[in-house]
Fold this sequence. Notes:
Bound molecules: acetyl coenzyme *A
CATH topology of the largest domain: Peroxisomal Thiolase, Chain A, domain 1
CATH class of the largest domain: Alpha Beta
Helix content: 25-40%
Strand order of the largest sheet: 1-7-6-4-5
Strand content: 25-35%
Mean pLDDT: 97
Distance between the termini: 18 Å
Low-confidence stretches: none
Structural class: alpha+beta
Amino acid sequence: MALYSRISGTGSALPARRLTNADLVTLLAERGLETSDEWIVERTGIRARHFVDADTNASDLAFKACEAALQAAGCPLSDIDLIVVGTSTPDMVFPSTATILQNKLTQAALARGEAGGAGGAAFDVQAVCSGFVYALTLADALIKTGTAHKALVVGAEVFSRILDFNDRTTCVLFGDGAGAVVLEACEHDGSGPGILATDIHADGKHTGILCVPGTVSGGQVLGDPTLKMDGQAVFKLAVGVLEDAARAVLDKAGKTAADVDWLVPHQANIRIMQGTARKLKLPMDKVVVTVDQHGNTSAASIPLALDEAVRSGKVLPGQIVMLEGVGGGFTWGAVLLKM
Ligand code: ACO
């Protein structure tokens, strides 16, 4: 018998405000910029994305995703002893979005007459679009060492706050949202559900190809606080490292690509997903795709896609699922698991 961590519930949240490509064409035209539904769909596969209103932060989206995940898992908040949030768009410089989220979950549970969830560890992980894969890897390790028993692992982003709407090459790509899973300890002989292998990496020499270079100092924002990207450099790097991470988790778990029932990749661009699937010889009908409706929601994209796939009955108990993330840093990684 060995200790595993398994996903026992998933949840997600999207802001109510949905913008189609046609809406963005109008918005950019007001700024004298030209784009088209055709260009966006052909280069990225994106047709729509959701943006928060001024009063909504990453922790608000995370809160809704976590409530749904806890309900799906049949898990009371008081059982949770770890919260890890992957985000690059935190509510504040500090404290972490995870601690703000913990308090929102606790206040809601107390209001319902249930026990709260304060006291367990809560922290953020900053790995941009790899944030959820990093967060899941950390939570798995903490569960396997016995440090934690039941975790909420979350990706939550409000990228609309850091977009430059005068830069048509980036502002059409991203959206807001959150996804969450309940990850809990279980013991079995290896035939049951759980995370089978993880693999995470970073190479800081690529900082400049995808970054938000601004910072806060002396009460002012220094530098540019909006997203900058060299799209073609990101594209080339992403396809290569995603293949490496996929092969690494398969090797570690003693599996082959043929064993994978579903690939749930970071939803940045349909062409990156198609490139990865092709390299792994996985047909596209085994790839969960939500980028068309969500855009790139960074750390939220994988748990959002996973939740949609679980709730629509695509991803089923007992199936082998590969999650893959890549993002600024450069960071990348993969998780192979049995549902
Ligand atoms: N609408 C219309 N035209 C546009 C737009 C737009 N929104 N944006 C750029 N163009 C124009 C450019 O100005 C350029 O025109 P020019 O030839 O007259 O100079 C032309 O389209 C081609 O521009 P490229 O940048 O060469 O277009 P490319 O084919 O590389 O596509 C894209 C750009 C979609 C960003 C692509 O490079 C890509 O997908 N990169 C991956 C980046 C990514 O997915 N990042 C997500 C974040 S990172 C992550 O999550 C891993």
